[in-house]
């Protein structure tokens, strides 16, 4: 008999992914990942035989279940399904796909909706961090329509406000505001996503190039690879050669009224926008005195809002820092506005397990 799996396909922020109840997938991680590869159509650079959209931003999965944590309503496991490799990774969070978790929890009956709006407390299983997503539910139903606009997504939709709880990890994983890797000054920061901040000019680029131009720069790619591998060790992540973290974000002065211009690599593809949690880490890093963003970013000290420019527009982050008893910075508040939209709700039919992977190009 043909397999079929209940699935909701949703755009979350500037990403798109397949959302599943944990109970609808195999409990064994290896069996689950093998099934997800067949559902998404990997490995195949076009993902022509599955749901994936032939790009890391459209080959994502959310697995949601009721939470045993009294501080959360649901657990959210993010899985990045590689496009051209038979690989499924749980090594990172995704703040864009997170935007759809609250609505999905209501759609699947995991959370009872309010009559006007609903707040869903979410534990991000990948890291143990927590967030609260608030979105409109007039009459007890999720409303995806609205006037909120985010860069990188056409049109408007209902706002999803995501407030992040402070994580247990260090904002500065290396214990230093600045490190030097292979002669390049960097700031390693983790406010939900391990991220390495680098001045674009230190890598002999402007930071205003298109993602395609940056990806085609072979010299730049080699330098970024070496920087990322070394930064991973410095940040306590070990060997990151087969992972997508830490992210590398190049910084340049703003061009369109924001605080900074960014180009982010995930890990070798240049993001056409910027991830939510990556942006949260960038914003926090820019607020740290002495970071590599000093002299590049234009920060309004009187406002929590930081507008981060990226290749297709901007992302606004509410960010403020405090200092602990040792004078070390920690994130006091991090919040972002995203949108999400339900694309289809039904059953997905995976490629047969007997079929060979890959195929003719």
From TrEMBL:
One Gene Ontology molecular-function label: isomerase activity
Keyword Isomerase applies: yes
Keyword Isomerase recorded: yes
Enzyme's top EC category: isomerase
Similarity comment: Belongs to the PrpF family.
Its EC number(s): 5.3.2.8
Name of the protein described by the UniProt record: 4-oxalomesaconate tautomerase
Pfam families (UniProt xref): PrpF (PF04303)
Keywords: Isomerase
């Amino acid at each position: 008999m043909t397999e079929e799996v209940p699935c909701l396909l949703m755009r979350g922020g500037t990403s798109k992914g397949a959302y599943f109840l944990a109970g609808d997938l195999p409990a064994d991680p290896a069996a689950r990942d093998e099934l997800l590869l067949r559902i998404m159509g990997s490995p195949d650079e076009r993902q022509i035989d599955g749901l994936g959209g032939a790009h890391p931003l459209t080959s994502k999965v959310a697995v949601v279940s009721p939470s045993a944590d009294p501080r959360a309503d649901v657990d959210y496991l993010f899985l990045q399904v590689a496009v051209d490799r038979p690989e499924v990774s749980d090594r990172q969070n995704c703040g864009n796909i997170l935007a759809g978790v609250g609505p999905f929890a209501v759609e699947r009956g995991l959370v009872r909706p309010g009559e006007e709006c609903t707040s869903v407390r979410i534990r991000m299983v990948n890291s143990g961090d927590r967030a609260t997503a608030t979105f409109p539910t007039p009459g007890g139903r999720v409303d995806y329509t609205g006037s909120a606009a985010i860069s990188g997504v056409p049109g408007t939709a209902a706002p999803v406000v995501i407030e992040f709880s402070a994580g247990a990890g260090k904002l500065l994983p290396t214990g230093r505001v600045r490190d030097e890797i292979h002669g390049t000054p960097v700031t390693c920061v983790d406010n939900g996503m391990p991220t390495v901040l680098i001045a674009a000019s230190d890598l002999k680029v402007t930071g205003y190039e298109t993602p395609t131009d940056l990806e085609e720069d072979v010299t730049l790619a080699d330098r970024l690879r070496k920087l990322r591998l070394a930064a991973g060790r410095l940040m306590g992540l070990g060997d990151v050669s087969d992972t997508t973290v830490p992210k590398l974000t190049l910084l340049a002065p703003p061009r369109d009224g924001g605080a900074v211009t960014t180009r982010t690599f995930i890990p070798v593809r240049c993001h056409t926008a910027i991830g939510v949690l990556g942006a949260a880490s960038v914003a926090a890093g820019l607020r740290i005195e002495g970071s590599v963003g000093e002299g590049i970013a234009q920060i309004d000290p009187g406002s929590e809002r930081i507008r981060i420019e990226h290749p297709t527009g901007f992302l606004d982050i509410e960010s403020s820092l405090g200092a602990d008893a040792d004078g070390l910075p920690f994130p006091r508040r991090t919040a972002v506005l995203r949108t999400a939209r339900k694309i289809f709700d039904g059953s997905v039919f995976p490629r047969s397990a007997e079929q060979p992977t890959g195929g003719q190009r």
